[in-house]
Amino acid sequence: MNSIVVDIKNDNYQVKAKYPKLQSPENQRLLKNFVLDEVTKFQNSYGTDNEGYKHKLKINYKIYDSKEFKSIVFKVKFYEDKDVENLFFKSFVINKKTENLLTISDVLNTDLKLMVTAQFLRDKLKELIPKDYYDESRVQRATNPKPSNFKNFYYDGNNLHIIFSPLVVADFEAGFFDIPVKFLNKN
After folding, report:
1. What is the mean pLDDT of residues 87-115?
2. Is 187 contained in some domain?
């Protein structure tokens, strides 16, 4: 799949971003706007204050293509200085038949599915997060069974994955968490 590349270099910052070319003009515009919004936020934050360091923004993506869905997961990394990396994820899932963007509410479309998934994620995070970084209240907040907590998701052809960016469920040092959830009913 071809990519559209944004490459900006000046004395204060460097931007390297890419996003995929899509068939649907509406979805293409959505991805372009996401990337350009992130670039603009970055430029507004680091455009003039370099303090001797060139700030960097990198936006890459990975596509998970299944029979029914195309999932695009963006990894956004920016560096405030040499040693400080910030990272977050943003995902878009497209129904291949309709070209419609899916939300987690389309997938976990009942309160029961949402509650069961939330409890599964809580239990899994307790297993995965190192004890030194585990914070029960943060995990509870992040897995409260409401769709806005699970907006970064993708489907890999076998499982639904929920992604938690650093700082959402634990200290930054604990990293991000990509948790596969058995996806029994795709309808």
Report:
1. 92
2. no
